[in-house]
Known about the structure:
2 strands, 66 residues, alpha+beta, two-stranded parallel ribbon
Amino acid sequence: MNGFEILEKINENSELKDIPIIVISEDERKETCLKAIRAGAHDFITKPLDSSLIVQKVKSILEHTK
């Protein structure tokens, strides 16, 4: 199962669909980012990872999903 299929399954499950999802990928293409967001991801981060960016994005998403 790929990440998009997992997002689809999460969105189909009423107990999971409200969990914020951040997609992390090596694919930097705009189309991939848009596809992930349209599939239900709350954010999209490309590799290599920047830990300070991840922390800030997680904090921001959690503040907006309270």
